[in-house]
Design goal:
- The complex is a heterodimer of chains A (about 230) and B (about 850).
- In chain A, β7 (about 165), α6 (about 175-190) and β8 (about 195-200) form a beta-alpha-beta unit.
- In chain A, the strands form 2 sheets. Chain A has a 6-stranded mixed β-sheet, with helices on both faces. Chain A has a 4-stranded antiparallel β-sheet with strand order 2-1-4-5, with helices on one face.
- Chain A has a single domain (about 35-60, about 75-225), classed as Rossmann fold, CATH 3.40.50.300.
- Helices cover about 35% and strands about 30% of the residues of chain A.
- Chain A has 7 helices and 10 strands.
- Chain B has 28 helices and 21 strands.
- The longest helix of chain B has about 55 residues, at about 235-290.
- Chain B is elongated, with a radius of gyration of 34 Å.
- Classes of the chains: A alpha/beta (about 230), B alpha+beta (about 850).
- The interface of A and B includes residues 83, 101 and 159 of A.
Chain lengths: ~230, ~850
């Protein structure tokens, strides 16, 4: 198996007022290609920060992150943006759809950024796949929370990413809708062979993944492989 | 292409939020374009109608009877096609009680050759010369109830009136209001008996040329020769250029007013975009997560704003072009020509480009924020000041300052004025911003904890996150500042001109009282029960040489630096032993009397000293009607020329000029119009040569003029207020959701509608009152400075801004605020939240 994400000795701290707050301390782990991987831990344990660093949304203070064979620290912000566009997908807790774009336009954006000619057709196909065939022209504010998250999932898969990061994907949804979205995520993961990294404090969801990394106070307290 | 698509998609959905932003641009551009375009059209029309304004291609004019040499030059030019003698005189109307000071124009020949001598009936213009009749100003005839066929008496001549004179080339509307024009056949002028020493008489010879004649060359060749003969050559182009320049200054002032409206619009742009972009930062972070680069996200919003600027520029330009059509209506007969409006391509381009440029420039500070948004913000809110961002913002602010400076230089063509203007703006904005900040600080530090809940809550609202307190106070303050400054300045100008306030000042001046007549004239005044305030002797003279250099030498020396009027002017000089109340000695010693006439110690005014380049101790020789008098400047006086009384550039001591040929100016103060009219009739009947200036009437003319100008300025200031309202609306709307959330929360926990209404009303009241009051107080300060520094007068502010502007604008702010929040109060909390979240 090939490592798609290789994290070594990661440290990250933020300044809060005059105090230095260490959020992540000596974090190292690997994620294999096509694997499903969960990061769990209580609030404030550094899960979301770790996810952001792994996806190249921010730089660590020390340590290295190799994503899809590329060392992130050697890339500029724009180079990391290009890497994200080509290799990475995102699903956020609060959906993060662009409110001024329709569902179809939201899904098409990553492809359009790549300059794809058939962005709209691909986006339509994905929306139909997530059960929103009739909602192409709806704006996010005209969709329910579950529908918005399904649009977000369709968007995350639109550029056929090698790895998908999901930050509490069911955090803002009721249990039933949450289950449907998770089902969708795992289905698409299987179909497209995308690596799935999920940040969650839902242990049931974490148990569905192949590997669990448990964080507390910015440190790894357990890594657990499931079969 | 994708950038354009994204800009369009996003802009389309955010259109409503950007409408107010665009309205700010539209109003600002409309103000600038209308003024610019009107100014250009005025300039063009003056140039196009220059011949019609003069009535000829060129003329030779002089203020004394032409010598043989002048006549021979006129002959060498093929002879004048028309000639005219002009002077002011009192006119009486037999069979009518009225008397008026009129501008008499005795004309021979078919003048005008261009333009029109417009009369009612029309044929009067053709027949008055052959029939030996007069044409009298139409307004004057209407005022006095005169009709064609009635008579006019000027000096010793009585003529029938052929018709009403509506317009004639060479008479300007302002002077016509003081001394309405009256046209007589040239041959009757001698018979009036008014051509005598002391009268200011002008002699004009009108010429036409073949098409293609180079008038500039003619001017260059002939003018120096004529100058030496104390005559002047004026071509129709030079006259119109001079006129154009005069209106240019007025245009520049209006341009600045329009520019202020535009700048206020820019405050609106900056504030609207600031809020707009803040709302977009999350979307920027998401786009970056999805792989958009910094440049791409920046460009999406830059293109959007440039697009809105373009659209605003186009709409504003169209509005401005239509708006300029209103100016002739507002200015009426202040304009020297009838204006035909055309649309100029360079003005259209200016408007459109200015729209784009200002939108982008003033949006750059908030736009720069998008460059420094971390994609991590899509996951968590990140706060922290980016040093690079601070530097970029500073560079943009520098750019804004530079732009304003360059633009005002382009309008004013003078670095000093531009810098003063820009600094003035910076200081005004800084003071207003300072007041707003100070107010907030004082409130915070001394928070009135004892107040009731609504009053406390409404004060708290001024400090809410993303509050618009500063923007609102600036917008309201600048608008109010402009309007009240205009009112205060008008007060200053009127106070300056007002004579009723100056109790001991004369309100009637009698000119051209001949030597020997003064005792009788004074007796008539005294008999009518009025005082004789001054009896001032006047001797006319010209400069012969200054410090040994003759006038001709100085004229030929282009480097002499001496102002030409000093060399050409016929000075009216008086002699007395004391200073008047409008004079202050600024250097030297005042000499009141002398016994010998070898070297006469004189006093000159500071402006004469400056223009003639003389100081105390310099020598000037005057030609006093053929007799040369050698003088020495012994003192320099500062003269307040704005005082409505006879003031003099040159004053001789007593004991020298008593026996020189002279005439007198007598002043009196007559209470009421009826008494003034009766005295004028009596004086005209007994002394037809005496001209009477009724200052009360002149003040009315000046007031009328100021009112017309004030109308136009108010019209332009209205733009600022309107832009201010737009900014206000924008600010209210952008913080509306915040307010709604707060209000809904309050209602959920049991607040009643009227309590919420009270909180909102009070919040807007604080904002309105603070902005308006700051604006008025600041304008009070600036008007006081103007009164001290520019007009040198005491300033008593009108109460109008306090009584009308303050409550009006405060109520307007409350009205706009409350009408925009009414949905919050009327609907159930849940419905409001659902609706507003769309």
């Amino acid at each position: 198996m090939t490592k798609i994400l290789n994290v070594r000795n990661l440290e990250k701290s933020y300044t809060s007022g005059s105090k230095q707050l260490t959020v992540l301390h000596d974090i190292s782990f690997n994620v294999e290609e096509k694997e499903t991987f969960a990061i769990v831990g209580p609030s404030g344990s550094g899960k979301t920060t770790l996810l952001g660093l792994c996806a190249g949304l921010d730089r660590p203070d020390t340590g290295s992150i190799e994503l899809c064979g590329t060392e992130l620290s050697s890339l500029s912000e724009d180079e990391r943006a290009v890497l994200r566009n080509q290799k990475v997908g995102f699903v956020f807790q609060d959906f993060q759809l662009l409110p001024t774009l329709t569902a179809l336009e939201n899904v098409a954006v990553p492809l359009e950024l790549q300059g794809a000619k058939n962005a709209s057709d691909v986006a339509k196909g994905l929306l139909e796949k997530v059960g929103l065939g009739g909602r192409f022209e709806h704006y996010p504010s005209q969709l329910s929370g579950g529908e918005q998250q399904r649009v977000a999932v369709a968007r995350a898969f639109s550029n056929r990413p090698s790895i998908l990061f999901a930050d509490e994907p069911t955090g803002n949804l009721d249990a039933e809708t949450g289950e449907k979205v998770i089902e969708l995520l795992f289905d698409l993961n299987r179909e497209a062979g995308t690596t799935l990294v999920i940040v969650t404090h839902d242990l049931d969801l974490a148990k569905m993944t192949q590997q669990i990394l448990r964080l507390k106070g910015g440190k790894i307290i357990e890594t657990h492989e499931q079969h | 292409m994708w950038l354009l698509k994204m800009a369009w998609r996003d802009g389309k959905a955010s259109g409503r939020k950007l409408i107010l932003f665009m309205a700010s641009i539209v109003l600002g551009i409309a103000a600038v374009v209308s003024i610019q375009s009107f100014g250009e059209n005025l300039k063009d029309n003056i140039a196009l109608q220059s011949k019609a304004m003069m009535g000829a291609d060129y003329k030779i004019d002089l203020d004394k009877a032409p010598t043989e040499e002048v006549l021979s030059i006129i002959d060498s030019l093929g002879g004048a096609r028309a000639r005219e003698i002009g002077f002011t005189s009192m006119a009486a109307f037999p069979g009518n009680d009225g008397t008026r000071l009129v501008q008499v124009r005795g004309i021979e020949g078919e003048f005008p050759f261009y333009g029109e001598l417009e009369t009612v009936p029309r044929e009067a213009a053709q027949t008055y010369q052959q029939e030996g009749k007069a044409l009298v100003d139409a307004t004057l005839m209407r005022q006095l109830g005169l009709n064609p066929g009635d008579s006019i008496k000027i000096g010793e001549v009585t003529l029938p009136i052929a018709g009403a004179l509506r317009s004639i080339p060479g008479s300007n509307s302002f002077f016509s209001s003081v001394a309405p024009p009256t046209v007589l056949p040239y041959s009757f002028i001698e018979e009036t008996g008014l051509i005598q020493t002391g009268s200011r008489i002008s002699y004009d010879y009108y010429f036409t040329t073949q098409p293609g004649t180079d008038l500039e060359q003619l001017d260059e060749v002939l003018d120096p020769r004529l100058d030496n003969l104390e005559a002047d050559l004026d071509t129709h182009t030079s006259t119109s250029e001079r006129l154009g320049r005069r209106y240019d200054n007025f245009g520049k002032f209006l341009n600045l007013v329009a520019f202020v409206a535009l700048l206020l619009g820019c405050v609106g742009i900056a504030s609207a975009i600031n809020i707009y972009i803040k709302g977009k930062l999350k979307a920027v972070a998401v786009l970056k997560c999805l792989g958009a680069t910094r440049k791409q996200t920046f460009m999406i919003y830059l293109l959007q704003i440039a697009g809105m600027g373009l659209l605003g520029g186009i709409i504003g330009t169209i509005a401005g072009l239509f708006l300029q059509q209103l100016f002739p209506l507002l200015l009426g007969d202040l304009l020297p020509v009838d204006i035909e409006m055309t649309f100029k391509i360079q003005i259209i381009l200016l408007g459109i480009l200015l729209g784009v440029f200002m939108a982008v420039l003033f949006a750059l500070v908030p736009l720069i924020g998008t460059l420094y948004v971390s994609p991590l913000q899509a996951l968590r809110v990140q706060t922290g000041i980016n040093k690079k961002k601070g530097k970029a913002e500073l560079a943009v602010l520098g750019g804004i300052f530079l732009f304003i400076l360059l633009f005002s230089y382009w309008l004013l063509q003078d670095w000093r004025y531009s810098l003063a203007f820009v600094l003035g703006i910076v200081v005004t904005f800084a003071i207003l911003a300072g007041i707003a900040r100070l107010f907030m600080k004082v409130i915070r530090e001394n928070f009135p904890t004892g107040w009731g809940f609504p009053a406390r809550q409404s004060l708290q609202n001024l400090f809410r996150p993303q509050n618009q307190t500063l923007t609102l106070v600036l917008a309201i303050g600048v608008g109010t500042f402009l309007i009240s400054t205009l009112y205060f300045t008008k007060d200053v100008l009127l106070a300056e001109a007002s004579i009723d306030a100056q109790t001991d000042s004369p309100n009637m001046i009698l000119l051209d009282v001949q030597a020997g007549q003064e005792k009788e004239v004074e007796q008539v005044i005294k008999n009518s029960g009025n005082p004789v305030l001054d009896d001032i002797p006047i001797v006319t003279m010209r400069v012969q040489n200054i410090n040994g250099r003759t006038v001709n030498q100085m004229r030929e020396d282009s480097t002499s630096g001496i102002n030409r009027w000093v060399l050409n002017h016929e000075f009216r000089v008086t002699y007395r032993d004391s200073l008047t109340n409008s004079e202050v000695l600024s250097s030297g010693d005042w000499i009141s009397q002398v016994d010998n006439t070898n070297l006469i110690p004189i006093s000159v005014s500071d402006n004469f000293a400056e223009d003639a380049l003389v100081s105390v101790g310099d020598r000037i020789s005057f030609n006093v009607q053929g007799v040369v008098m050698n003088t020495e400047v012994r003192s320099i006086r500062t003269v307040d020329w704005s005082q409505m009384q006879p003031n003099f550039s040159i004053v001789f001591p007593k004991g020298v000029l008593e026996n020189a040929p002279q005439f007198r100016v007598i002043t009196t103060k007559v209470p009421g119009e009826a008494a003034s009219a009766a005295l004028q009739q009596e004086l005209v009947r007994l002394f037809p040569n005496v001209s009477i200036l009724d200052l009360r009437q002149i003040i009315t003319v000046i007031e009328d003029l100021l009112n017309k100008i004030a109308w136009l300025i108010n019209f332009m200031a209205f733009f600022s207020i309107l832009t201010g309202i737009i900014v206000l609306l924008g600010a209210v709307r952008t913080s509306k959701f915040q307010r709604i959330k707060e209000s809904v929360l309050l209602r959920t926990i049991g607040a009643r509608s009227n309590q919420i209404l009270k909180i909102l009303a009070l919040e807007y009241f604080y904002l309105g009152a603070l902005g308006t009051l700051s604006g008025i107080l600041l304008s009070l300060l600036s008007s006081q400075l103007l009164a001290w520094l520019l007009f040198d007068t005491a300033f008593v502010p009108s109460i109008f801004p306090f009584l009308v502007i303050f409550p009006a604008i405060t109520i307007l702010v409350m009205f706009i605020g409350l009408t925009n929040s009414i949905s919050v109060i009327k609907s159930p909390p849940l419905e409001v939240l659902r609706k507003e979240s769309y």
